[in-house]
Each structure stands twice: as C-alpha cells, then as structure tokens.
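FORM 7B - TANDEM STRUCTURE REPORT

SECTION 1: FIRST PROTEIN
SEQUENCE AND TOKENS:
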Amino acid sequence: GKIYPGGVEAICSGTAITERAKKAGLDVQHAGEVNDMAKQGNEAAMEIMDDAKEYLANFIAILIAITDPEIVILGGSVALKIPGFVQEVEDRVKEKVLTELKPYVKVRPSTLNEDSGLLGAACLAFEHAKDKEAA
C-alpha cells in the first residue's frame, strides 16, 4: 500500500479525508460528501474512504495486540456522522487480529458527541490539578 506521512490522523480524520478528496479534484466540503460520492461509485472517493477505514483498522488491531483493551471508542465527525463507518472498521479489525481475539474485539462510536476529545483533555487537567493539591 501507499505510505502517508504523519499519524493515523493524517489519513483517517475528517479533515484528511476532505483534503485528499480536494487534491483528487472532488468538489467537497466535508468527509460525509466524500462518503456519499464513494457510495455513488466515484473511484477516487472510494479509494479515500477505503484507505481511511483500512489504516484505522490496522492501527486499532496493533493497539489491541499491544494493550488488550476491553473496548475501543471512536469519536470525531467521521465515526459519528458516517453511517456504518465504525461497524466496517470493527469488521476489518476482526480480520486482522489473532483468531482467539476476534470475539473480544469491540469498536464503538463515542456517546459524547464530537466534544469527546475536549472533555477527555478537561478531565485529565482536573485530575492533574487534584493530584497536585493532594501532594
């Protein structure tokens, strides 16, 4: 496959999907439009969406192999707004992990809407502040 510079964000985020689509000459404003074009059979859009799912699934499969999480939660506009995206990523992850792990793979969309990253950062900051007070 192709190599993309940067982290998984550089290919799987809504911004990355949209930017790649624009570079491919597609007239889109957000990842949902790229996904719609992919569903309608646009080859460039199909490849971009496939790359996003494939890279994310590879990344999650590696995380599962290393950290053995009970569940992987996906947030952000792509996971939350594109129907079937999270399920397809989970299906791909199951194809990549060891057979024994397949039944335990759980990839779910966040229930905290698109602010989940912000809320997580705030929780970390408060925890850190509490730890300093206790010291």
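SECTION 2: SECOND PROTEIN
SEQUENCE AND TOKENS:
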Amino acid sequence: MLNNFLTLIWIVLVICIFYFWKKKPNRKYMWGSIIGLIALTFLIGSLPQNKPVKDTSKSTEVTSVSSSSKSTSASSSSKSSAAASSNHEKKPKRNQFQKMILKHRAGNLELGTSKSDVEKKLGKPDQDDGQIVLYDNFKLYFENSKLVGGDLPAIQKKVDKKIAKEKQERQEEQSKVTGFAQSFGRKPVDAIQSMPSVYRTTQDDNGNTVYGWHPEGLPELVRVDSANNNTDVYLYDEHGKNNMLGEHLYHGRTIYQKQQVNNNGYDY
C-alpha cells in the first residue's frame, strides 16, 4: 500500500516538473519538484520488496463422521497451503517502479562481478540454474560465478565494448610482434651470437641454425637460418612444426655481419 502511494506521488512530481518547465515556467517550483523526485526515488528504491503474505486462515471444518478424518483433512490442507505458499514465494511481487529500479541497478553492474555481490545489490533472483539468473523479465549470464553478460541493453553494451577492446589489443599485439619479428630476422648473425644471454642458439635435425628470443611482454620468437642463406622467423609453438614453429612472421636473406660505413659514407 505504501509503495503504491509513494509511486503515485512520484508520478505527480514528474508531471509537476514538466508543468513548471514548459506550461508555466517557475524555476523555484521546478527545482523543488526535481529534488523531491530524486529523494523519493532513493526512498522507494530502499524499501524492501513486497513479500507474499502467507494465508494462515483456515476454513471451519464441517462436522465429519469421525475425528480421524478431520485430522487427515487438516494435515492435507496444511501441506497444500505450505506448498502453494512456497511456490508463490519463488517470485516476489514488484510494482512497476521497483522493476525500473531493479533494471537500473542491474545495468550498473560491471562484468566480472561475483554472483554473491550481484545478489547483494539486486536481491535473490526469481530463478537460478547456475549459469543463467532470472530477475523479472531480464536475464544475467555467469561463468564460474562471475557476470559475463545479460540481455539488458546496458550490459550488452559493456560486452560489446569489451569485445572491441580485446580485438584492438590483439591487433596491436600482432602488429608489435610482427615488428619485432622483422627486427629479429634482419639482425646480423654476429650480433646475435655476441649476446648468448639474450638469444639461445641450437641446431635442428636439418642442420639449420635456430635462434630463440623472448621479448619482454610478447610471445617467444624463433629464427631459422638455413644453409641456403635464407632467414625465417616464427612464433614459438611447442605443438607446431618441428615442435617449435608456429605462425610464420618473416622471410628474408640471412645477414651475417653488420655493414660498416667508411668516413665518406659508403659501405664496404
């Protein structure tokens, strides 16, 4: 009853704001209505959800043939009433304003929020099958008890933003890795061999010289210098070709020594 009365006042305040803004401009009354609306919104949102009231009243038993039949009938009636009450409590009643507040709170949830924290903010769900949680007419999706999505537009927008960000990060990393691979492939052999603490050197079964390099914050790279003076750089992949070669990133001629420049600016 109180919720319905407060909701009626809330609607009146909305009408007052429009009236003192458009129909009969009055800044004082308009701001007073706005402040009242905000205060009333928080008040209604903080009120507990309507809970179903259990019906404890029992119809008067008509005189029956035996006292044992009365006892059996009363017991059966009590069980049916308890079962109906239990089913009724699964989905609490909410008025339209409470539903609006519930959706607003759900839309403010951040991806990755634990299920326990979601229940603290929204209350017990109407249904919960472990991965999909239902509140009124919207759903929230969980993986490993962490919020990963939902069918509310506000949450779907966050999911789309996360996907776009992850895609951009992958593209930036791929571009960075490609640049490091080109630098690795063009590095002279003598420069690589002079830094054994940075580059590891081995020989494969085909007699090729293999160098490994792990740039900080990036995947490990593998350089293969073949006997015919070709250099190829790959991503390291323990399940790839020859137990190490993943995606191919660079191909070029092998550079053995850094070109030196004389005083006239010419290579020799």
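SECTION 3: OBSERVATIONS ON SECOND PROTEIN
The chain has seven helices and nine strands.
Residues 50-89 have pLDDT under 50 and may be disordered.

SECTION 4: SIGNATURE
Preparer initials: ____
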